[in-house]
## 1
Amino acid sequence: MSSDRCSPSTVSIALAERSYDILIGPQLLDDPATWQGLPRAAVALIVSNETVAPLYLERLRIRLLAHYGRVDAVVLPDGEQHKDWPTMNQIVDHLLGSASDRKTVLFALGGGVVGDMTGFAAAIYMRGVPFVQVPTTLLAQVDSSVGGKTAINHPLGKNMLGAFYQPARVIADLDTLDSLPSRELAAGLAEVIKYGPIADPDFLDWIEANLGALLARDKAALAYAVKRSCEIKAWVVGQDEREQGLRAILNFGHTFGHAIETGLGYGEWLHGEGVGCGMVLASDLSVRLGLMPPEFLARMRRLIAAAGLPVRAPRLGAARYLELMRVDKKSEGGEIRFVLIEGLGKAGMRGAPDSLVAEVLEANAA
Ligand code: NAD
Ligand code: GLY
């Protein structure tokens, strides 16, 4: 795949009056067309963090000044450990302190942490103001900026406080990925890989064949990975916006992954690293329950390791894992429910005996 095949594309999320477009391509930040047709208002507020703001905030501000009389900015501390009430309150404090009205448009410039917090602030400020996602990590471009899940963490559980609240547009400028640290690129690949086993075996083949190009940040490869991921997510979210059933498949690997993140302390492992390792554990559980052949586990472990992600789980102890996983949003009546693969491209939710989960943890322990 060569870079000259990287042309802009649009994926649409069909949700009746909450429908919107995801723009994907290079040079979107500086293209005036990107910013046409957004909700009108006197004030726009850019929310970013101390890492991303120096890189891209002024470029965004210049574009927005063509559409909004005032463009404010709030720069948050960086890190998953700051995805909490006090940090999100900085957004709300600014909005109230500057007398921003209910038409004010929020722009989330950054990765999933900034996106999730900005979306939640937009959902609750004056019972809802419009917001636009400008994702700058691979993870945010392929997953977190799309679909309207917004949240902050609680010490007892990840993403436990939040709202379903859709953005007005998602603008995924692939050029912003140039400055992304390699570890963060790998974390984003975890969410890309996820879409293969749950929905699209051909995409899984494609990822395996193009992993080198993705790791080398080939723009055409990244463009296809972002587009195909967003198409699959749009297909899922279009049928089940509020996760009454189908949408849960997007959480493949996340039950174990969230437990690792919470158990180690937020920020120790990246979210995508937890998901990568969590997919190995969930694949193993799928095999042990007889849903998939052993070769599937070997294939997933090989791909996830080749992407630069951890495949061995931290030794938190099975009892602690089980305790953490019972707080997962998918749990029902205290029963942990895992997203498991039931055939390539097909996922479902199931419980599993604690003893089997403990076997999986032991077999894949660091
Ligand atoms: P992140 O937001 O912490 O960003 C990762 C790091 O990269 C940060 O240090 C950030 O400052 C930096 N960064 C961002 N863009 C950069 C750029 N272009 N150049 C250089 N550095 C850059 O993490 P993430 O992986 O983007 O997102 C993870 C979060 O997303 C987690 O909190 C997770 O729970 C959430 N999430 C939400 C959903 C959803 O549907 N809402 C889905 C998946 C994940
Ligand atoms: N990342 C899972 C979801 O959006 O449902």
## 2
Amino acid sequence: MAGNWKMYKTAKDTRAYFAKFLPLVNGVADREIVLCPPFPNLEAAVSEAQGSQVKIGAQNLYWGKEGAVTGEVSGPMIHAVGCTHVIIAHSERREYFNESEEDVTRKTKAALEAQLNPIVCVGERLGERESGQTERVLREQFQGGIGPLAPEEFAQIVIAYEPVWAIGTGKTATPEIAEEAHRMIREEARRRFGEDAAAKVRILYGGSVKPENVKSLMAKEEIDGVLVGGASLDPQSFAAIVNF
Ligand code: 13P
């Protein structure tokens, strides 16, 4: 159950959030909880989450370890702050920062090298879905970005299916639509990495997940978790999603 705060909240907001959120998920032990705040709040989030089962992730990383790359942040830096996860290739990164499938592979490998668990995002745009290209897009994203990983690298990633048309729009994919896409992704995983690896990889659904719809999504066999944007900004609503 992962939350992506995107470009919201300051360090002060982060501390206030945890004060409200932690008591609401206290004792939850049968599911992983990850929150991904903006870079400047990671330290505050890690320190607030200490002693709880909540893990902290970044929303992006650069693939180099260090260097003259103004404005970027590396895997070892994110790990040093106490993070355990990092989101890779969110559709907003693909769209606004032109991240390519090559970037996905490089960033995923860099994250693993820095001992971070990558949450790798894939998903089609509205026009692609409407013109019947969903399967082709998911296949290309998988083969281009995830396919080049070594089997032992693939075994450590989490995939997030986030249809672009469902992000921040209030239009959730129906559980059936999400499940169908998850099945396509798992089928690609089976072709490239084999039955066992495909059965084990966790695929999260993201796109307008709310306390009201999480249960029906999670009821689907193929949906192993959720990646929540807007509804993760409010401690009560994210706790309700976690505790669905
Ligand atoms: P919303 O939950 O706001 O639709 O965002 C989904 C998302 O992009 C999570 O990464």
